Amino acid sequence: MKQAGFSTYLYANTELDDDLIRSITENCRSVWYKKNEFLLRQGDICRQVFFVEQGLLRQYSIDEKGKEHILYFAPENWLVADRESIFFNEPGSYFIQALEDSKVTIADQSFINNLAEHNPSFLTFNNRLLHNHIRHLQKRITQLLSATAEERYLDFIKIYPDILLRVPQAMVASYLGITPESLSRVRKDLAQRHFKS
Amino acid sequence: MKQAGFSTYLYANTELDDDLIRSITENCRSVWYKKNEFLLRQGDICRQVFFVEQGLLRQYSIDEKGKEHILYFAPENWLVADRESIFFNEPGSYFIQALEDSKVTIADQSFINNLAEHNPSFLTFNNRLLHNHIRHLQKRITQLLSATAEERYLDFIKIYPDILLRVPQAMVASYLGITPESLSRVRKDLAQRHFKS
Question: What is the per-residue DSSP string for B46-112?
C-alpha cells in the first residue's frame, strides 16, 4: 500500500532546513482514521491541518436539501484543512471524512501560525499552498461553467489518476457536477473510441 | 456617480497606520480606462493590483471554443488582480477588462511584496484578501454544483446589488452558468411572485 511521509513531503516541496523539518514533524502526531470516520464536521471550527500519509479523505458540504457537494478528494501526499474556518475562526462549511482507513499526520494551527510568524521560508511555503489552492479552485469554476462531461472526466483523471478505482462512481459524478448516467456514458464512449484506435 | 477612494478603503479595511496608508497611496497611481479597454490580457504576466475607484471591471477567460467565462465582476471598492499569475510569475489565464469607463488605482506588485515582507499588519491584510478570495471561490463551486437558476440569481443580487443594471443580461447569465433564456424566466417568475405577495 502506498505511504507518504510528511518529512519526505516537506523536503521535496519546501526549502526549509533540516532542523526546522525535524522540529515540525516532532510537533505533529499521526492518527489512524477508520473508513467513514470524520476528521472535521460542518459547523466545527477547524484548528488543524491534515497531511494524508496513507488512505484517502474528502472535503465536502451538505446543502439544505441534504445533497452532498465534494470540494475535493485528498489521497496520499495531500494537505487538507478548512482554511476558511481556520483563518476567520468561524464554524466551517465542510466535512472532512476518511473514505478509506487512513493514516493522517496532524499539525495544530497554533503551531503553524507560530512558524509562519517567525520563519520567512515557512511563510513562503504556506503562501504557495494558498495560491495553489486558488489556482485549483479557479480552474474548477471555469470547468464547471464550460467543460463537457467528457472534458471534466479527462481532467479528473489527470488530477486524480487512481481515485476512480477507490471511490464509488456516484461520488466521482458528484465531484464533476454531472449525473452518474452521464459519467457511465462518457466512460463507455471513451472505452469504445480507445478500442477502435 | 459613485466613487471610492483607495485610502478610505484602507482605513476601513485594515489596521495600517496613517503613515503607511499615506506611503501606499503615494506609491500608487490613478488611471482612467475607457469602456472595453483591457488592463490585462490572457497570456500576460500580471504585475499589478487594481483597485476600482469608479466604474466596473470584469476578470474572465476565453476557452478553446471561443466562449467567455466570467470569474467575477469588480465594481467600486473591489481589488482585482490575477493572483495566480502574480504569485507563480506565469502567463495568466485571464483578461481584466473595463466594462464602463473606469478610474483605477494601480499598485505595483514589487511594491506590495516589499510591504508584505516588512510590515506584519500589511501581511495580515493581504492574507485576509487571499482567504476572502478562497471563500468566494469555494462558495461559487458549491453553487455551480448544486444551486437552481433562481438560487444563483438571488445570490448574485446579494453579492452585486447594482450590477444587473450595468451589464448585459447575457453576461450575468454567463457568470451564473445558465442560459440567458433561463435567466429571463427566473426574473419573470420572481417579479410575478413579488407582485402577488
Answer: P-EEEEEEES-EEEEEE-TTS-EEEEEEE-TT-EE--HHHHHHT---S-EEEESS-EEEEEEEHHHH
